[in-house]
Amino acid sequence: MSAEHHSIWTHGQSLNLPALTREQHADVCVVGLGGSGLACIHALLDAGKSVVGVDASEVAGGAAGSNGGFLLGGLAMFHHDAVERFGRETARRIYVKTLAQIDRMAAETPSAVHRTGTLRIAISDAERHDCERQYACMRDDELPVEWYDGPEGHGLLFPSDAAFDPGLRCRTLARNALGRGARLFEQSPALWIAEASVTSERGSVRARDVVVAVDGKLETLLPELATRVRTARLQMLATAPLDIRIFPRPVYARWGLDYWQQRADLRVVVGGARDVGGIAEWTTCTDTSGAVQGALDVLLRDGLHMSAPVTHRWAASVGYTASGLPVIDEVRPRVWAIGGYSGTGNVVGALCGRAVADLIVRGRSAMADLLRA
Length: 373
Prior knowledge:
Helices cover 32% and strands 27% of the residues. It is of the alpha+beta class. The chain has a domain at 23-66 and 166-228 and 323-372: FAD/NAD(P)-binding domain (3-Layer(bba) Sandwich), CATH 3.50.50. Strands 1, 2, 9, 10, 11, 12, 18 and 19 form an eight-stranded mixed beta sheet that branches. An eight-stranded mixed beta sheet has the order 6-7-5-14-15-16-13-17, with helices on both faces. The protein starts with 22 loop residues before the first strand and ends with a helix.
């Protein structure tokens, strides 16, 4: 069976929104219709603002619809590492905010979110020791964590985390935004972004503020961020449905470099192995590579003991920052940027979307201050 080169979360599910073909006017133009951009749009609508949203491909066409489907508490780094880098109070406050955001996402899109918890599985003595450090730090901070021993292995269970369908969530948010009066356009790449305007191939948007809510390739849209954000390629595959459920919750292992879950339709999705690709994975290219896909095949067959045929293979661009904190800044007059989620942007990205809306509407945001640490 040959594999489709599309994300399993979005393949065949497009909303088929129109392209931007004339000049539009709004209070705010949001570039990027992924999870963070749509969270920003809803927050702006809550504040009574008129909004136009544009995307170079389609709703959830980037990393927002091409990721592993994990909703994780905290930042991309493990909590004890965040405590060492940012201090206990800041790291704990961020973690608590992400847990509240997971609750919010479950309430906003209940059909897309499943409160399963997630697992971190250790595959070496060093990783088991690191799990012990993480467990002790989280218990000290009264954050939800449990020891786990089960079929997947030994490690940690995070009961407040969740699994979700990222494409379904974004499509639901987009439909709801349209129903609230937002104007959304697909297949409309932003060719020029300036104060008060965004220009696409066949149309433009005039707005008081512009939000660039793009994770991967953010530095290509806004070159002034090239010293802060670097784009990497993350790759995944999906199998045909299994006969039974084997994995009741998402799992990440090998220091988070490998991850997998079994969807509601019993397909298994597997991602990671970026380290196998080496420096070649620091790229804006979203074609799959033989080296990484081969490593994912080995993980699927030898590690997870799955024999189901692979039906989908895909890659997505994500942005990494050296600090591990996201970008949430006014980078040009009235042009705001959010992104650089370092591989785990489903929850933090939504927080950033709401925070930048607060900055636009109120001129301040406690969440933005916290994420800037």
